[in-house]
Amino acid sequence: MRILLVDDDQPLMETLAESLIHQRYAVDIASDRETAEEFISLFSYDLLLLDVILPDDDGITFCQHLRKQGFERPILMLTARDDSGNKISALDAGADDYVVKPFDFEELCARIRALLRRETHALPPVLQWKGLKLNPNTYEVTYADQPLHLTPKEYALLELLLRHTSRVFSLDAIIESLWSFEDPPSEDAVRTHIKGVRQKLKAAGAPKDLIETVYGLGYRLKPLTAAEQASATEPKRVPTPKLPKPETLAAVIKAWEQYRSVMQERLDVIEAAAIALDNGQLTQDLQQVGYANAHKLVGSLGSFGFPEGSRLARELERLLQDEPSPQQAAQVSSLVHDLRQEMAKPSKHQVKSVAIAASPLLLIISQALEHSQTWQVEALRSGIQAVIVPTLQQAAAIFPQRLPDLILLDFTPGSSPTLTAANREQLARVQQQQPGVPILVRMNSEVFSDRLQVVQQGVHGIVPATASPQQVIAAAQQTLKDVTGSARVLLVDDDPQQLTWLQTTLSLWGFEIFTLDDPNQIWQTLAAVNPDLLVLDVEMPGINGLDLCQVLRADLRWQALPILFLTVHEDAKTEGHAFSVGADDFVTKPVVAAELANRMLNRLKRSHAY
């Protein structure tokens, strides 16, 4: 499906485009009405996202024009003006939805998907043709129940054919539907994609002509026979699993770092207007440019995770909309100063990303996706990040850079009251692909031999099918504690804020955390806590961490105590010195809490004293 974004805020639109492209849409961006009209004359779009204020026109007027010209596809209006009058005008002009800047990227993408679903309501939720199935909700493709691992363009090509099973697509039509205007491939490249899909289908057992070449015209799916048409049934609806929040957050954070300088330049323009106002030299042109940049910052800053920055920009927009009075000069300058300080802080997305990264990751593999929201909410309340997917393969695609801390296999969907061969195979496959990760099993069977078998296969615990969401997550919490053995960990650092953060986040893994910000109290604290693991900083007032480690290694009471250094020093000399005086591990700050927790756990497992 193809989407046109019409807005002159380039950083915001490019970030949104990346999110939509990741969801398999082809996206074009137009910065004004003239460019948008050229795109619409060249391509067929499934949805138009239109800003209310454009450099060369009013978005509401443009929307009315498009409707009069016969444009029938959904139009979503996007604006920083949050008043009912604008909403009514936009909807009366023919808009299908109205979103106010700043917006949440996930919510906006969800609204776009909802509008596109409304347009294709007659299509089944899972697209099927003979033995071929494609689920647009999970991006899974199978033939005869065998998964097909497709590239994004191969997936988009197959979805295009499945959504229009009676149509023959020329190479030009495929390019127009699947590629953006700025990045069209050659016809040979499209043929290569088609060849790749055919090869993967054939490897899964499909006939070689499932994608049929209509010579001189293009490509289509081979038509069904009369018998196949008679036996075709509508597939069962599959609920949409929630996509992982960390992925979206990471993309938005990355985009902010990319466009931070652009936001600073916008603020510099506003500051120039403030200085000119203070000196009595503000021209109408500079005032209008300052107003336009403040207007853009309202939407951009809020969407990139700076709600207070968005509020300050909105105040500046209000003051600069009409020529401000000399008496307002101090207010404008104060707002610019406050906004610059706000933009120097971490965004709420960065704060949330740290919190998510610090949480234990519970991976739930289940076909009962209707439970996903209640499980995830309950997990969040307990400080655990839960991700629910129907297959292990999908989990690997979602979290390529982080292993789960715990896996829950749900064997309850289906009518079988006993453990099936498919259940056993799935358990073995999970153990093979995720070695060392503790596993819980949720199952129907009360048969003793079934339960004995999963326990003998190394499952950490069994959750009954009747367990409530609270009981499921409580079992996960207990398992995390069992894995760590409620190990007693002493953290020694002269930074109280660092100690507070570490105590909060590491406690989620089941560690019993003790902190000490005065290394001179180390001997009394060691005797009182009797820790299973000691975490030291290198540079501390009074006692150097390296010297302390060396002394501990000479003390018969503590020479076997595992010691991990957590420090800002990342040079090889300091690291080598740490290991030479007896350190067991060396981690540099800043560190993701999940990595630190796993390093601590691995060190405890290797310790003879644990």
From TrEMBL:
It holds the Pfam family Response_reg. Residues 124-223 form the OmpR/PhoB-type domain. The keyword DNA-binding applies. This is Response regulator. Keywords: DNA-binding, Phosphoprotein. Residues 255-354 form the HPt domain. The modification 4-aspartylphosphate is found at residues 51, 410, 537. The modification Phosphohistidine is found at residue 295. Residues 2-116, 361-480, 488-604 form the Response regulatory domain. Residues 124-223 bind DNA.
